Structure formats: C-alpha cells, structure tokens
C-alpha cells in the first residue's frame, strides 16, 4: 500500500455457542423455485472452519445466502444451535450503505461507542484522518472490503459466514485476515477460490455439486488427496468390471489387461501433467490478481479512473479464467 501501513484486527466473540452450531438436511437452494443445487446435508460443530468448494455456478454463494436467510430455501431444513450469533460477509458488500460516510457506516450501527473509539477501529482498517469522511460509494474495492470487515469485527459473532473474503484485499491485509481467522475462537463457513487461503484456514472441506454435498474431514490437501484416491478406485473398479465380464481365453485376456494397464498409465501421466500445468497457471493468475488488487488499494492510483478501470477489467478477466481453471482442476483431481 502507498504508505506501507498494514491493517491490524482480530475477531472476538461476545458469548460461546452450543456444541452444535448448524444442521442442514436435504436442502435445495436456488432462485424463484429454480433449483441450483439439492440434497445438501451437513453439520457444523463449534470450532469447525469449513471451506465450501465446487465448480463455478453450482450455488456456493446461494447456499450461504440461504443459510443467513437472505434467500428462502426451496426444500429441506436448516437448524441453528443454541446461542448461535451469525456474522455475514457478502462478497458484493451489499451490507454497506452506499450513501453514508465511512464514519457513519459504523457509528450508526454502534451509537453507544464514542467517535474516538469508532475512529480507532477504522484506523486499524487503514481509514485515518479525512478518510473516515469519504462517502462509501466512492471507495475502492479494497477499501469497501476493509470497511465490511470492520463492521463484521464489531459484531462479535460466534459464527462467521464469509463469501470470498479475500477478494479486493491487498497481500498484507489478506495475511492479517488469515491470522485473525486462525485465532478466531468461533465457527467459520466460507467460500474462497484462493487455494492458499483455504489450506491455511480450513479444518474441513464441504464439496458442493448440483446433486448434493460431500464432506471431507481434513484440510484442502487432504481433500485433494481423497479426490485422487476416489478417481483411482473408480478406474480400478471399471477395469475389474471389464476384466470379469470378458468371456475370452486367458492369453487374450492377459494381452487386453496389459494394453488397458498401459493405456491407463498413459492417461494418468497425461492427467498429472495437465494438473501441474493448471496449478502453475492458477498460481500465476492468483499472483497477478493480488498484485492488481494491491495497486487498486493505492489511493494515488485509484484516483486515476482510466488506469483503475483498465486494472479492474484485467482483474475481472483473470478471475473469469481462474474460475475456468479451478473447475478444470476440480475435474482433474
């Protein structure tokens, strides 16, 4: 950032929830009765940090909005545990009031906190001096993200539901957020396309597709490993079925089995090679997006609307490509 300062914050809770935080049973989500994903079932316990992953357009954000009652469920049941208080971060920052000043965005919701303390909180999120008098609609993407996180911090909720929380954050702010979430004493359910962020934060992974959800009781590396194991077992089962169903003599069967094995190994080599290529491209694009977003956080750069517009276009194009690559990577894994 221009002045090389870093954000500084942590998430605390006002009171602890019960052990059962959330139970979702045979849920279907979507818009206006058009189902995006169905048969979603999972439980969250106190202290879980769960990453919601899956192909682009499968309804991850829709599921979060349904859980926080921004959207009605189509079918199924959502049950909250005792003493659960939810803090929701919307990637589109819909929780912010575009016509308010930065100072009033917080102060109007927490009128009992003194102006000095509100300014201190905003200072921790890099809003200092006259920055707090800016109108929310004039803020950059990074500034809006930090303001939304400041509001979230003041809620002291024991269950955080976060939709793409690292979007628009510069690298320093992203690292501060990661550390704050690692130290957070509550429960987290989040969506992110940032593999490094997921691997640092998640203790469980919930994979979503149009037909349901699958839970993996480990971090992101564990999820990738299990997906690979499942694909290998599926391939072996298919080979075994073909072998047992063949009514051929032994020599022909041996020859066919050898050819199948050879072809399977060739395909596996191609799959691993492509997976490495995709991972390399993802890493490159994620770095590019982070660098672009850091540029947008520089006030001097942000004031040049033409350059800022160009960078925003590049970010959108890179994220669109990232979505495609992440979908391909999920299929390969």
Automatic annotation (TrEMBL):
<feature type="domain" description="ABC transporter">
    <location>
        <begin position="22"/>
        <end position="235"/>
    </location>
</feature>
<dbReference type="InterPro" id="IPR051309">
    <property type="entry name" value="ABCF_ATPase"/>
</dbReference>
<dbReference type="GO" id="GO:0003677">
    <property type="term" value="F:DNA binding"/>
</dbReference>
<dbReference type="InterPro" id="IPR027417">
    <property type="entry name" value="P-loop_NTPase"/>
</dbReference>
<dbReference type="InterPro" id="IPR032524">
    <property type="entry name" value="ABC_tran_C"/>
</dbReference>
<feature type="region of interest" description="Disordered">
    <location>
        <begin position="244"/>
        <end position="271"/>
    </location>
</feature>
<dbReference type="InterPro" id="IPR017871">
    <property type="entry name" value="ABC_transporter-like_CS"/>
</dbReference>
<dbReference type="GO" id="GO:0016887">
    <property type="term" value="F:ATP hydrolysis activity"/>
</dbReference>
<dbReference type="InterPro" id="IPR003593">
    <property type="entry name" value="AAA+_ATPase"/>
</dbReference>
<dbReference type="GO" id="GO:0005524">
    <property type="term" value="F:ATP binding"/>
</dbReference>
<dbReference type="Pfam" id="PF00005">
    <property type="entry name" value="ABC_tran"/>
</dbReference>
<dbReference type="Pfam" id="PF16326">
    <property type="entry name" value="ABC_tran_CTD"/>
</dbReference>
<dbReference type="InterPro" id="IPR003439">
    <property type="entry name" value="ABC_transporter-like_ATP-bd"/>
</dbReference>
<feature type="compositionally biased region" description="Basic and acidic residues">
    <location>
        <begin position="251"/>
        <end position="267"/>
    </location>
</feature>
<keyword id="KW-0547">Nucleotide-binding</keyword>
<protein>
    <submittedName>
        <fullName>ABC transporter ATP-binding protein</fullName>
    </submittedName>
</protein>
<keyword id="KW-0067">ATP-binding</keyword>
<dbReference type="InterPro" id="IPR037118">
    <property type="entry name" value="Val-tRNA_synth_C_sf"/>
</dbReference>
